[in-house]
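Researcher: I'm preparing a figure for a lab meeting and need a structural model of a single chain. I don't have an experimental structure, so a prediction will have to do for now. The sequence is pasted below. Please return the structure as tokens so I can convert it later.
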Amino acid sequence: MNSSTTILLREWRRLAEQEATTIASREWTELNELLDQKDRIKDLLEDYEGPDFSESDYQLVTEIISITGQNQQQLQLAMAAVQSQIQTEDRSLNTMRKVHQTYGQQDGPSFWHSYS
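Model: Understood. Here is the structure written out token by token.
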């Protein structure tokens, strides 16, 4: 058993659990930071081989895979919501442009100026 692998995997699991909270709160910058930290841990774990991992390490890996799958589903839902919001705002912007084209710039004096 190698305690270094266990420490690294526990940290990876902690980061994966924190990702769920970060995705739910839509803190995308923080999510990127967590992903970077996980990549660094992954790089460190690549220095170890199969016999270096304990049975509890393999259980941690199973937990990490499960948490990661849940995070991916949660992220897909959050991304769909953001994309929907972007589409809604794009439609609103296009509507405002059309209104501006129709009513915004008219040649000649304004009707309201000549009214008074």
